[in-house]
Amino acid sequence: MLDWRRLPLSVVYTAIALAYMMVAAALAAWLDTFLPHRWMSVLLACGLLLPLLAYHVRRAFAPMHSLFRALAGTVASYRDGDYAFGLNWKGKGELGRLVDAHNRLGEALREQRQALVQRELLLDTMVQNTPVAMLLVDPSDHIVHGNLAARKMLGHGHRLEGQAFADIVAQAPDAMREALDRGGDGMFTVGDESGSDDGNEDIYHLSRRRFRLNGRLHELVMLRLLTAELRRQEVQTWKKVIRVISHELNNSLAPIASLAHSSAELLRRGQHERLPTALSTIEDRARHLEGFIRDYARFAKLPAPRLQPIEWTRFVAQLREQVEFRADGVQIGTTARFDTAQVEQCLINLLKNAHESGSPADAVTLSLRRLPDAWRIDVLDRGTGMNEAVLANALLPFYSTKRNGTGLGLALAREIAEAHGGRIALLNREGGGLCVSMVLPG
């Protein structure tokens, strides 16, 4: 039996038209013997053959109609993301090529969908199991996604999706909330508010990135717990400090021992005229060693702060006599309780660092803000800021990027802040520069 689907459409159309014309002509010739006029026989023949022609045309094109409905259905499925459908068509010609192309398209879409699902699964596994807490916040300030670390850190293990980011921030510890409210990248410490040195503090690194997702601006907030890593780095730093101290001691003690031996020889020989030079060199080396040990001991043996009421305008005026800066937020008559000498030394170091950062002198600012139960002191500059590596290590003792730096300035500031029961944080500013923020109870 002839299968119309195996024939090209042009052959099908021609065959039906020729068959219809031949049968109509034969029927009209036969009807001429009964009808008086030719045109009446032609009209009657066409009328009699029309239903039969419609039946054969419909039957011939029924498979193609089914194919077109199937094509429309699969296209709708593709639009809905379902690529599991395929078409079976035994015909050749244009329809055969169309079906083959459609099936190849479906196969390509299925492969792409499978690869995409595998990549999404891999990405989700990595995001969920990373120790970095990650939050994706949409333009309406609601959390779109929070990984397992974020749930543990900010949600007590519960899901965070759908919650307002501001509500989550409001429930966070004070230091974390302040860092999140300020925005930008930075480090902060969360621990015992009493200031006791029991090692219960945790150090975090905050990173925030904005990007467009589906045409809308989103924000990715990442919180990384650095406590264990910094503890390991502190051990390595202390080992380095021991090597530095040993080197410095040897550099001073070896010449002192040699000069002492030489002085004894000069005394034995009676060459007293060379003794003052040798003794002067011994004195210089001894005083250098004394200063070196004193500087390091000052950091290692920070005394307990002696708290006393301090008037801010007077304190800021004393600071201005030693280093240049602009003051913001200092109100006449406001007071706080802290150790004047320690906080003054801390802020002098921070302000000098701000001047050495490459910032214009008039952009170095000391900002004072009153919090509900504390004072916040920000030292701001418009220098080069800090990259992530420096930001992660800046508060470590003896870590310095300066050739002749001791690495004690920021570490001492942190010790002073925590000795007062406060905390310190470092954040890069939008537009360039650094913000060193110190919070003191009050």
UniProtKB/TrEMBL annotation:
The chain crosses the membrane at residues 12-31, 37-57. GO terms for biological process: osmosensory signaling via phosphorelay pathway. Residues 244-442 form the Histidine kinase domain. It comes from the Bacteria. One of its GO terms (cellular component) is membrane. It catalyses: ATP + protein L-histidine = ADP + protein N-phospho-L-histidine. The keyword ATP-binding applies. It is found in: Membrane. The keyword Lyase does not apply. Keywords: ATP-binding, Kinase, Membrane, Nucleotide-binding, Phosphoprotein, Transferase, Transmembrane, Transmembrane helix, Two-component regulatory system. Residues 69-114 form the HAMP domain. InterPro entries: BphY/WalK/GraS-like (IPR050351), HAMP_dom (IPR003660), HATPase_C_sf (IPR036890), HATPase_dom (IPR003594), His_kinase_dom (IPR005467), HisK_dim/P_dom (IPR003661), HisK_dim/P_sf (IPR036097), PAS (IPR000014). Coiled coil: none annotated. GO terms for molecular function: ATP binding; phosphorelay response regulator activity; phosphorelay sensor kinase activity; protein kinase activator activity. It is a multi-pass membrane protein. Its EC number is 2.7.13.3. This is histidine kinase. It comes from Marilutibacter penaei. The lineage of its organism: Bacteria, Pseudomonadati, Pseudomonadota, Gammaproteobacteria, Lysobacterales.
